[in-house]
Amino acid sequence: MSSLDIDLNTATPLQRVRYLMARLREPEYGCPWDLKQTYQSIAPFTVEEAYEVADTILREDYEHLREELGDLMFQVVFYSQMAEEEGRFQFDDVLMDLEQKLVRRHPHVFPEGTLDSRIQPGEQVAEHTIKSNWDAIKQQEKADKNQLGESILDGMPAGMSPTRRAHKLQSVVAKKGFDWQDSALVMAKLEEELGELGQEVYGNAPNELIADELGDLMFCCVNLARHYKLDPELVMMKANQKFERRFRALERALQRQGVSLEEATLEQMEQEWQQAKKTEVATGDEPQ
């Protein structure tokens, strides 16, 4: 049954969105932009929409979270429509696979491997056991599909952002014992990497060497975040927001003085920057 073959008067919201997507991709009457899209051309938009969801949550802008979640969900509908057109799979297949996978990976909730099965009172499992079982089940799934590579790093999604990939690499090898046991040791390593970067910078080394040492330092920063159970991308998002907030305050302060950014000296801008920091601390917007 095609997504176009529905009664709009009785259709669910999800069915209506799938109908909308099918109309947009209808060969003779659809939208030219939507018709020419491919999996590859849509992928960057998917990443962007996911970041917008994360940004909305980070800003606690729950009023707009509903809208952003809709945009992200539409990406799934878009991919599924293209797959259906090519005879690969349908949207319902995506949902059924998702249900089966999550039920299979949560035996501590669905003990019989069915959606209607339940554990009995007192049968709850410790969190560390849940994580261990989750990893074992994922490995078995890969084995069943002949997807086990020569390395535990095989199968790492190529589309991950570099920061996310660094975090994932570290997490994977840490499960096999390749990890610092103390965050203080990670900090010591970070200071070591900073020193090596300083040597290259102060020694006027070529950019390639500076890039290499800078990469080591950034990789170590991700590792430190991981040890404190912090998401490095969210950490950077907060840092970006803080910079934007302070720079906007700087701009407003200069405007009140009748000074444009082009006219302002570095000393003036630094003074207003420091004042913005003090104001945040005083108002409680920024931890001291």
Radius of gyration: 25 Å
CATH level-four homologous superfamily name of one domain:
MazG-like
Report how far the terminal alpha carbons are from each other. 60 Å
Class based on secondary structure composition and strand pairing: mainly alpha
CATH architecture of one domain: Orthogonal Bundle
CATH T-level fold name of one domain: Helix Hairpins
Outline the biggest β-sheet.
none
Overall outline: globular
CATH class of one domain: Mainly Alpha
Quickly count the helices: 11
Low-confidence spans: none
Along the chain, the helix and strand elements come as: HHHHHHHHHHH
Number of strands: 0
State which percent range the strand residues make up.
under 5%
Average pLDDT reading:
92
How much helical structure, as a percent, in the residues?
55-70%
Summarize the model shown.
The chain has 288 residues and is an all-alpha fold. It is built from 11 helices and no strands. Among the domains are: 13-89, Orthogonal Bundle (Helix Hairpins), CATH 1.10.287; 162-230, Orthogonal Bundle (Helix Hairpins), CATH 1.10.287; 234-283, no CATH class.
Q: Care to describe what's here?
A:
The chain has 288 residues and is an all-alpha fold. Among the domains are: 13-89, MazG-like (Helix Hairpins, Orthogonal Bundle); 162-230, MazG-like (Helix Hairpins), CATH 1.10.287.1080; 234-283, no CATH class. Helices cover 66% and strands 0% of the residues. The protein is built from eleven helices and no strands. Helix 1 packs across helix 4 (62-85), helix 3 (39-58) runs antiparallel to helix 4 and helix 10 (232-256) crosses helix 11 (266-283).
